[in-house]
Amino acid sequence: MSTLGRARLLLEAFNFVEHMPIRLNSVIWRTLLGACVNHNDTKLLAEKVKERIHELDPCHHGDYVLLLNA
Q1: Phi and psi (nearest 5°) for 11?
Q2: Taking the CA atoms of the chain, what radius of gyration do you get in angstroms?
Q3: What is the total count of domains within the chain?
Q4: pLDDT tens across 41-59, in order?
Q5: Domain residues for 26?
């Protein structure tokens, strides 16, 4: 997933994570959020990723800081 993010294949990375056969955690989603921010995709996909993170870890506010700094 991180390789897809580095290659700017953010939508493919999102779909890959969505269909992973393991229980997802917020770290996986934060990695994708970092790729979105690094490639200036902070509108559509990053918002979806942020929502997934908030579902898993609603008390962590570092994701908002990451988006605000972008």
Answers
A1: -65, -40
A2: 11
A3: 1
A4: 767 888 888 888 888 888 8
A5: 2-69
